[in-house]
Amino acid sequence: MVTRVLSITAAVVSLATAAAVAGTLTDRLQTSRMTVLRVDKGASQFMCAEHRRWTSVSGSDLSAVHPGDIVRIDKIDGKLPRITVVRTAADEIGSPEL
Questions:
Q1: How far apart are CA 5 and CA 10, in angstroms?
Q2: Cβ 57 vs Cβ 45: under 8 Å
Q3: Residue 38 within any structural domain of the chain
Q4: Closest CA to 43 of 61, 59, 27
Q5: Distance, CA of 39 to CA of 69 (rounded, Å)
């Protein structure tokens, strides 16, 4: 009987931990991935559609970024964040999920 209670308790704790980790991962993906609304290459910034604010990034990274692209921001201590295109606007429009 004690073994059964311990097994059930362990299962509940495992499920709660997995849910917490999954929630944290989802939150992290949603805050680190952004949809580009506008690009200002001269100022090394882009406007995020989700947050409606300008974000400064490394200027060399903006050469491959266009409105509608889904991008990921990688923050580096003491430097401007780096931007990586996760999915281009053309790929997003042509995806079967729509």
A1: 9
A2: yes
A3: yes
A4: 59
A5: 11
Kindly report the pTM of this predicted structure.
Answer: 0.61
Contacts 24+ apart (CB under 8 A), 85-93: 86/33, 92/68, 93/68
Cβ–Cβ under 8 Å, residues 47 and 54: yes
Asked if 24 contacts 56 with a C-beta cutoff of 8 angstroms, the reply is no
The answer to whether residue 41 is domain-embedded is yes
Q: What is the C-alpha to C-alpha distance for residues 29 and 33, in angstroms, rounded to an integer?
A: 6
Which secondary-structure segment (H or E) carries 73? strand 70-74
Specify if 3 maps to a domain: no
pLDDT in tens, 12-30: 556 555 555 555 655 554 5
Give domain status of residue 15, yes or no.
no
Considering its fold, how many domains does the chain have in total? 1
Which region, left, alpha or beta, applies to residue 68 given φ > 0 means left and ψ of -120 to 50 means alpha? left
